[in-house]
Amino acid sequence: MSIPIPFSPAPRLLLGPGPSDAHPNVLRAMMTPLLGHLDPQFLQLMNANQEMLRSVFLTKNLLTFPISATGSAGMETCLVNLLEPGDKVTICVKGFFGLRIVDMAQRLGAQVNVLEQTWGKVFDLNLIRESLQRERPKLLAIVQAETSTGAWQPIEELGQLCHEFDTLLMVDAVTALGCVPVRVDDWQIDAIYSCSQKGLGCPPGLAPVSFSPRAVEAMEKRRSKVPNWYLDLSLIRRYLTTDRMYHHTLPITMNYALHEGLRLILEEGLETRWERHQHNHRALKAGLQAMGLTYTAQEGHQLPQLNAVRIPDGVDDAAGRKMLLEEFGIEVGGGLGELKGKAWRIGLMGYNSRPAVVLLALAALEQVLTKLGAKVPPGAGVAAANQVYLA
Amino acid sequence: MSIPIPFSPAPRLLLGPGPSDAHPNVLRAMMTPLLGHLDPQFLQLMNANQEMLRSVFLTKNLLTFPISATGSAGMETCLVNLLEPGDKVTICVKGFFGLRIVDMAQRLGAQVNVLEQTWGKVFDLNLIRESLQRERPKLLAIVQAETSTGAWQPIEELGQLCHEFDTLLMVDAVTALGCVPVRVDDWQIDAIYSCSQKGLGCPPGLAPVSFSPRAVEAMEKRRSKVPNWYLDLSLIRRYLTTDRMYHHTLPITMNYALHEGLRLILEEGLETRWERHQHNHRALKAGLQAMGLTYTAQEGHQLPQLNAVRIPDGVDDAAGRKMLLEEFGIEVGGGLGELKGKAWRIGLMGYNSRPAVVLLALAALEQVLTKLGAKVPPGAGVAAANQVYLA
């Protein structure tokens, strides 16, 4: 083979469902020379990362750390440590990632009960209560921010409800953490996972997780070894929180990135960050609606960081995304599952949730939609967004 | 909590069992802004990484790519895709990492047969032949470069031997790839895994794997789904080699690093690189022996990239490693398992296999050993190494 030249891609603005652009300081942190994974300096960094993750998850949970793989491995970590063959689990499915939880749980030999909701809508707590009463599962799993539809599931009272029935609550916060409130202790969440490449403003490669004392107790009562060695928390917790017993070699550079990403979040402040995401979302939404676009998620439950909108009739999905990418360097996401070919997903996550990004996105969308034959009132998108910013 | 300041560690020279220092060009490549994981530019990079991995593994295997986790996840990928409950597997154990394979295989419900060899020694092929004849396992697993002892297992003829008995050959090349010859096709290896942070000169976080058509056939004949979703090759191969069906979000930046690391290897040339590792090893070994140190691995089977030596009587393990780290910024590895407290493991891997590193390591070791009460002939280590270089 001929040896490729060094990689030097054309620049992009990542407004899809993730990865989102990493903060420039995070990228710079990744140039830091390596340390050994047992170097005292690196152990200190890992302790700081755990401490900062607790602050971002709003929890005191001892078992709070990044799993050394991407977000979906965080999902699998929760399931494989909490479920044994025959265990009952109720999974709330309202989009693509709920289905993924079902797939994983079935592979573990769990008795899976699926609660279904129309894609784009959220679950009513009464429906979940009835199901818990009937099924009394060991675990209930739900996605807080459904990446495939942009729907924002309220989960504030779900932990308390689950505990009435002695059920553990597992929450998917992959697209939520760092963008919208996630209060692990207040909301009594027992197992939660996220990723590094969305609200935390880092590259993909790590999956922060956290487990309540209730969840830890359930793990300690297991009758069988965790079938998955790499994600076995009984090994990982010894490595990361107690006697440093060697498990795997931590991804050093990814943890440098996480350190800087978490630092930036805490410097900004969680409340300020959530409000920033809301503010830029309101501007983007005003602009999209002024251009005639409608959201796939139900009103009142739309995620600020992931704006999924229906593609206007007659506009070609692939052609539109290609034009955005090639002419403006802007990536937006296509639809997943039921929404394939029918929706675009516009992310405003972490570093990318800012006015300059909102205005550029609307201006570029206007040009692309017009070229592809949609009737878009000229200038309306940007004008509506500016109205929000000027208010 | 108080927010930590940006991380800025004291510099290190990583001469342990890995991570080894990444090449400076690799670190620079990690500052490249992110791309979406389905961006045409990123797909091109992933294709190049697969192509370059094939060149480095010396294989035509279609299923050759990096798993999105560290080396041990590469080990688990091979096992979880090739073994089903009840399958017979023979595992050759001559150190810590052989034991890890046993642990993983047992979790999968395989019938595990262990072949044991003294730590530091290698297996004789006749012993393996007898076992294969008796057991007729589906899979035989062996570590080529045992990281815990520094022993170099010959595997050139093992593939052919395994195939006589219809057994698949799985090889652990975590510490081998990029340092010593690994010829997947010539040696008829069916499943092989490595890591990014040793011979490939990148940070930890990826596990390159490769599977022969025989191994693929065995996967396609499975009676059950792979229990581990994240490492299920039937999903990953669709994502990476055929229809780009979304599986997980690839670690973008780690793959930038791998691209640059592999490029540098191919620019240097595999044969030149292997010879470089040998040359610097000969110099280091001459120096260590002149200082009275002895290898833990048997003569004739010592890895050039991992020099495990017995700590001289009376010298304290922890004190010695601490002094090297604090006074010279040099990290060497302690002993694992049976060799805990008894050996130091000195890595000369990838970028760090060079004369400047050898001379500094010997000079610093002389000072540390002398301070800790060992009788070391002054200047003998460096003189012996220089003799090799000047020859």
Description:
- Two copies of one chain form a homodimer.
- With 391 residues, chain A is an alpha/beta fold.
- The first copy, chain A, folds into two domains: 24-266, Aspartate Aminotransferase, domain 2 (3-Layer(aba) Sandwich), CATH 3.40.640.10; 270-390, Aspartate Aminotransferase, domain 1.
- Chain A is 41% helix and 14% strand.
- Chain A is built from 13 helices and 13 strands.
- Chain A has helices at 24-29, 40-57, 71-82, 96-107, 125-135, 158-164, 213-220, 233-241, 252-268, 270-290, 317-328, 355-371, 380-390, and strands at residues 13-15, 63-67, 88-93, 111-116, 139-143, 145-146, 151-152, 168-172, 191-193, 207-211, 306-310, 330-332, 343-347.
- Chain A has a seven-stranded mixed beta sheet with strand order 2-10-9-8-5-3-4, sandwiched between helices.
- Chain A starts with 12 loop residues before the first strand and ends with a helix.
- Chains A and B meet through helix 1, helix 2, helix 3, helix 4 and helix 9 of A and helix 1, helix 2, helix 3, helix 4 and helix 9 of B.
Tell me the major beta sheet of chain A: 7 strands, mixed
Strand order of the largest sheet of chain A: 2-10-9-8-5-3-4
How many H/I helices of chain A? 13
Sheet/helix structural class of chain A: alpha/beta
CATH homologous superfamily classification of the largest domain in chain A: Type I PLP-dependent aspartate aminotransferase-like (Major domain)
Mind telling me the C-alpha Rg of chain A? Answer: 21 Å
Overall, the morphology of chain A is: globular
Classify the helix fraction of chain A into a percent range: 40-55%
The sequence of SSEs of chain A as H and E is EHHEHEHEHEEEHEEEHHHHEHEEHH
How widely separated are the two ends of chain A? 59 Å
CATH structural fold name of the largest domain in chain A = Aspartate Aminotransferase, domain 2
> In the residues of chain A, how many domains can be counted?
2
CATH level 1 class label of the largest domain in chain A: Alpha Beta
- Name the assembly state: homodimer
- Please give the number of β-strands of chain A: 13
